[in-house]
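Look over what follows to help learners.
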Amino acid sequence: MARRERLTVVAIQLGLAAVVLAVWVYQTRAGRVSPILLPQPERVLDEFPDLVRDPVFWGSLRTTALELAGAFAVAAVAGLLVGVVVGRWAPAARVATPLLAWAQTVPIILFYPICILLFGIGPMSKVAFGGFYGFFPIAANTVLALSTVPPRYLTAAAALGASRRQTVTRVLIPAARPLILSGVRLGAALCLIGVLAGELLGSTEGLGYQIASSSGSFRTPELYAYIFVALVLVAIFNLAITRADDRNAQV
């Protein structure tokens, strides 16, 4: 039954993608949308062979991937550390939860100029800004997940003589894993948003810079091709996180 449900979900997703593609083809070929705003799909596809042969593309992809990896490492380590420390203490969790929720409503882009002042226009400012952007959902979900673990789990662990480290690694984290993973996935997506936003606003390399350059010179098919590459990058990153969590769950 589970396999049939997964196949049904995949079929629905593919159907929705086909509908979007069909509408895209119809609107562009019927001339209802300016090609400057939305080029025909085949024109976007024609850009990929040129991108693959262009060393600038590979350099930009490598730069963004490294910045994303660095930003995610900062966000994950800081978010999980803060979440575990705060989430295990109920009074701190009650204070931190609304603050972390409020922080996610603040336009984080306002802090990017500070990152530029601290780290310059190079990759470090993108790593710092992306990590700062992705930190809050990871920390918030970790605090919420740990603070909602049933107390009987902790009571049972104490009765069995579990140490503090064993309680965290073998009781709290496994019980809170689904909600923590949800925050990690969201944090990964926000890390990429932060990195790309930083490259769009002030950079000389990376996918974000190439997107801004394509947009500024009205190379719309190339613009959509770079956007698609960025979407694939975050999908691969999210898949890697899911696979890593699945392997840990089986251990």
Notes: Residues 164-201 form the longest helix (38 residues). The mean pLDDT is 85. The chain has two domains: 1-33, 40-250. The chain has ten helices and no strands.
